[in-house]
Amino acid sequence: MNAPPTTSMLRALPLAHRERLMRTAREVSFPQGTRLCEEGGRADRFWLIRSGTVDLDLHVPGRRAAVIETLGHDELLGWSWLFGPHAWHLGAETTTPVRAYEFDAAAVRSMCQDDPVLGFAVAQWMGGILSHRLGSERTRLLDLYAPYGSGSFG
Q1: pLDDT tens-digit map of 53-69
Q2: What's the DSSP call for residue 42?
Q3: Following CA atoms 133, 138, 141, 142 in sequence, which dihedral angle do they give, to the nearest 10 degrees?
Q4: How far apart are CA 138 and CA 66, in angstroms?
Q5: pTM
Q6: In the beta sheet, which residues pair with residue 98?
Q7: How far apart are alpha carbons 34 and 119 in whole angstroms?
Q8: Phi, psi dihedral angles at 85 (to 5 degrees)
């Protein structure tokens, strides 16, 4: 399997783009156990995690939510804000206290529309993360609910 794409803005975007995006960020903190987003809810922001951990989860009817992935330092939380209909694909809950940079989705989408080079760089970054997260979701759900061996690609 391929290595996951970088979720770090520092490694994914050129300096000029990072600096522009960071001018729109605000620092936020959340205690352990905070629900940051709910699957199907309005995706109007995203975060870069500075410290702490966040579980991404998926609602499974009749069962407890399945944790798909755990995110930590320097990772992006949220890609649904970029792609219509701007509804969260997964839920997210802090598993430790979290400090993060929070970005307003509408402001960043507007910046991306006004500057196609920035927009393309952000879209590539988000697309790589989206591809990785959907693969993680598939693998995790097969691990939890499929008969042994049914998720192999061979």
Answers
A1: 999 998 878 888 888 88
A2: B
A3: -150
A4: 11
A5: 0.80
A6: 30
A7: 31
A8: -90, 20
